[in-house]
Amino acid sequence: MTEIAIVKTQAEAGRIAADLIVAALAKRDEPTLGLATGSTPLPVWSALAERSLDLSAVRGFALDEYVGLPAGHPEIYRAVVDRDIVAPLGLDPQRVRVPGDDEGPLAEAGERYEAAIADAGGIDLQILGIGRTGHIGFNEPGSSLASRTRLKALTPATRADNARFFPGIGDVPTHCLTQGIGTILDARVLVLLAFGETKAPAVAAAVEGPLTSSCPASAIQLHRRAVVIVDEAAAARLEHRDYYRFAWDHREIATA
Known about the structure:
Blueprint: E1 3-7, H1 10-25, E2 32-35, H2 42-49, E3 59-62, E4 64-67, H3 77-89, E5 96-97, H4 109-119, E6 125-128, E7 150-153, H5 156-162, E8 175-178, H6 181-185, E9 189-194, H7 200-208, E10 226-231, H8 241-249, H9 251-255
């Protein structure tokens, strides 16, 4: 089953996720890390940076990228990844990819990205956030649970949520390239983080609701090793919170 860690602070969440990343990356000489942008993963990158690890051999694959923003725009995810992840962690920027960054035809960008992930041996650990609509990556409600990296239209709700990064909602792109749900499920470990009461309904639907494309994040229920790290506010609608706390506190017994 999905493991649930309910934490007091975002810093604690970051430390737990960093532990999981270190363990996953230690299993291969040239490991791969799935990168998520936005504010939610920032405590993860901070906790990882504090460890002063040599991550120069790590390959990185971002979840998604906007379509239609001009080169050099500060909110293209290539720029965000370089600013928030590559530089603080000391990653080699030449070993970090975002969808569509190879300048080939847009129509085949998804297939090329899938091939690049496969050539790298797959993703060892994928960091995820979750949107209010239950989306992971930019897989909006209704996305196929078997989908691969592709071009997608963004919902009005997602564009409204992301408008804070732009002068106005009219400046938020309407389309993106995103890893598909099937692509995400291929990662060997999934770590999903969520903070705040606005995420509580989506977290409950993903963890305890039915498996449905109406909540794309519910697909994590199918994964062999998914860890969900949430603060008290984001966990507020979980029916089995007490059990999750007990199971997390006693997880060493299961792995001994």
